[in-house]
Amino acid sequence: MTTPVKVAVTGAAGQIGYSLLFRIASGALLGPDTPVQLRLLEITPALKALEGVVMELDDCAFTTLDSVEIGDDATHIFDGANLALLVGARPRTKGMERGDLLEANGAIFTTQGKALNEVAADDVRIGVTGNPANTNALIAMSNAPDIPRERFSALTRLDHNRALSQLAAKTGAKVGDITKMTIWGNHSATQYPDVFHAEIGGRNAAEVVDDQAWIENDFIPTVAKRGAAIIEARGASSAASAASATIDAARDWLQGTPEGDWASMAVASDGSYGIPEGLIYSYPVTTSGGDWEIVQGLEIDDFSRAKMDATAAELVEERDAVKELGLI
Ligand code: NAX
Fold first, then answer.
1. Quick check: is 200 in a domain?
2. Which superkingdom does the taxonomy of this entry point to (predicted)?
């Protein structure tokens, strides 16, 4: 067994937490030989429910689960964290304006960014799942000046996985045969799932599909609005799939993307592909040794350009709104 890894999870008593914690504890994230120390953050009223979840974690008798600590103080829970998965966020409730939502989440992610800055381990990586994920990551990053910007990312892996699944269903391919899928931009309805650079068994996916109308009118809106479709069907938002994507994203970040493939991750833009620098924008990335690199040199046609710019414009609006609120 190797040195234990401290994994902090916020919103641990929520829906996603209920799936995520068990996957992490079972070794799905770090493998069978790495002990995990879970550090779980919740708001005070949810601590009792979280105690129940911890009882269930105990009852699984996972050999890879070294310890569990729970609490409502970010500075205590994030202490020494090597990986922080920021899942807890304030959902939009009835009558809430967009500005109210950004402000409520701003309060959470400024506090958590500052706490991570103060007490997280030197090698910390921070993945934000809680919505609005890109802008929450921007807020946390801006409030953690001592942590390198490259250590922050927001989750678009669920969108990426949804795109793989839709493309597999359309073409009859297996998801494992599809590589180089890309989600560009915001984890929102403006995201751009791009099949033009994807490959199926090494062949260009758009050519295999050979149906521009399907790509434009079916594939892209289905992937972008899948969250709403799940709510409609299930009466609750995606949870197990979001947890699974959170694991996929963190695992690939820490352990590397497979040779000949890449992943989608929302990371701080360095201006690549003409996206405003500093936005947390989803790009195709390769990872190795815990670091990511944006895939360069992809040819972008007018169709893709317009979609990539539209989702960037939404992120600029969100950034300007949180700037105006003094959150970044
Ligand atoms: P739940 O409402 O079930 O759970 C959220 C939990 O966060 C609650 O237990 C709440 O007490 C806790 N929480 C709130 N403020 C907190 C704080 N300051 N510190 C610690 N914990 C806090 O939501 P769930 O379904 O688990 O979803 C969590 C977040 O993921 C939501 O923001 C949701 O919108 C977002 N999602 C993001 C996805 C993505 O792909 N990026 C997809 C799934 C999901 O919609």
1. yes
2. Bacteria
How far are the Cα atoms of 190, 196, 207, 219 from residue 211, in angstroms, in the given order?
21, 12, 8, 10
- What letter does residue 43 receive in the DSSP assignment? -
Taking residue 292's Cβ as centre, other Cβ atoms within 10 Å add up to: 22
From ligand 1's centre to the CA of 60, what distance in Å?
A: 24
| pLDDT, tens digit, 9 for 90 and up, residues 257-315 | 999 999 999 999 999 999 999 999 999 999 999 999 999 999 999 999 999 999 999 99
Domain ranges, residue 70: 5-154
Q: In this structure, what token pair is assigned to residue 66? A: 């070294």
Residue 69 burial class via C-beta count within 10 angstroms: exposed 0-12, middle 13-18, buried 19 and up: middle
Domain limit, last residue, from 133, 154, 175: 154
Inside any domain, residue 325: no
Long-range contacts of 25-28, Cβ-Cβ distance < 8 Å, separation of 24 or more:
25/57, 25/60, 25/62, 25/64, 25/65, 26/60, 26/62, 26/64, 27/62, 27/64, 28/247, 28/251
Q: How far is the CA of 11 from the centre of ligand 1 (A)?
A: 6
pTM: 0.98
Q: Determine which residue's CA is closest to atom 41 belonging to ligand 1.
A: 129
Q: 231 — phi, psi (to 5°)?
A: -60, -45
* Last residue in a domain, options 99, 134, 154: 154
Q: Is 129 annotated as a binding residue?
A: yes
On whether the CB atoms of residues 83 and 250 are closer than 8 A, the answer is yes
